[in-house]
């Protein structure tokens, strides 16, 4: 659950950085890199968890909470492409992923 909370916190911080550049989104390579890092980290976690689930080595928490949260955040929410400019598309992706992951997190980790 800590991994999910870490990703959630990283998305919150990235959202704050994107908000700071609104309404005239600035070209910011740091934000672009941070978005790419988060998206890649989610993909790596998904892959590792999928392997554990397939081998029946995953905990119930990993299988029924963490994996679905990551899958939904990656597939449905983080639609902005890696390398895209900071803008409304990236902002929408980040906020949507925040909301999804927050749904799966227990109150004490938000």
UniProtKB/TrEMBL annotation:
Residues 35-62 form a coiled coil. It comes from the Bacteria. Keywords: Coiled coil. This is Uncharacterized protein.
